Amino acid sequence: xxxxxxxxxxxxxxxxxxxxxxxxxxxxxxxxxxxxxxxxxxxxxxxxxxxxxxxxxxxxxxxxxxxxxxxxxxxxxxxxxxxxxxxxxxxxxxxxxxxxxxxxxxxxxxxxxxxxxxxxxxxxxxxxxxxxxxxxxxxxxxxxxxxxxxxxxxxxxxxxxxxxxxxxxxxxxxxxxxxxxxxxxxxxxxxxxxxxxxxxxxxxxxxxxxxxxxxxxxxxxxxxxxxxxxxxxxxxxxxxxxxxxxxxxxxxxxxxxxxxxxxxxxxxxxxxxxxxxxxxxxxxxxxxxxxxxxxxxxxxxxxxxxxxxxxxxxxxxxxxxxxxxxxxxxxxxxxxxxxxxxxxxxxxxxxxxxxxxxxxxxxxxxxxxxxxxxxx
Length: 376
Ligand code: SF4
Fold this sequence. Notes:
Blueprint: E1 2-4, H1 5-13, H2 15-23, H3 32-48, H4 57-66, H5 76-96, E2 104-116, E3 123-135, E4 140-146, H6 154-158, H7 161-173, E5 184-190, E6 195-199, H8 203-222, H9 258-295, E7 299-302, E8 305-308, H10 319-326, H11 332-335, H12 340-347, H13 352-360
Parallel strand pairs: 1-3, 4-5
Antiparallel strand pairs: 2-3, 3-4, 5-6, 7-8
The chain binds iron/sulfur cluster.
Iron/sulfur cluster (SF4) binds next to helix 2.
């Protein structure tokens, strides 16, 4: 299989988006966020393209505004906010970096590397573009620019698959550097915050990344593509086709079925009434409990009825004792079951390979449909 890194990333974030893009081959209408990101990347390329005199801040801002595309924004306010954000990113970039001092080896560097599955010998190709490769004092730095607002934790950067894939691609071009891996830095540069998060990789981590890539290929080959609603949906150009979003864009949505419309509105209102009733009930309960404690009574009377206080106990068992009783009866194994919450808690403490193996061991237990409400 041939796969671009962005396709792999799409699949990991939302397999349905991957399907639209790579299987159905529906050209993705550019979202405003994607257009914005492309222009900021283009401006950084303009800033660092070798020239006699590196562009000044005014030149970079001029490039940015000349290539600005107003068409993708819904209104003037939205456009103004995005434009100011871009300007602020570039200004900050100049403030924090000495443009003439950068020792850049390559910009928007294209790669295609082959990864072979040791199990079946099948070869796959992953391609992509590395934003920037720098020569540092004693090694290299691979940089990927990000225009998103949210920054990841250092732990996520240390295990970021994209950076590992980029480093594998870099090593395919500079194989000798494998002996000096600690001198090759991989960085995510968050332009909005002007912060660069850096990391390095061990050979083991790079091999893990290859295995993760093979695992993703195996998942894709299963052919199951489901929507996954996350903040990244804001960047997705397929919202109008996606079952999780397309109703929002249905022009006749307000009039096509009065009955359904009313049911949706009533459901939303009832749900929010239930939430506020629950809060009220908790407050009243606290007051009544306090009153009962003060009066030393377990029941209170009013014209409306009687409220009784009952003590409900929940129990847990001593595991050792239970085991000693059940094991001789050959029943211990039948009461053991995997605790999903406990499993989630240990996930951050185990190796990426073990994490991936656990993910692979996941099977659907049961499926139920429920409605969740996000009130405007
Ligand atoms: S809108 Fe969100 S859920 Fe739908 S395809 Fe795009 S990323 Fe997936």
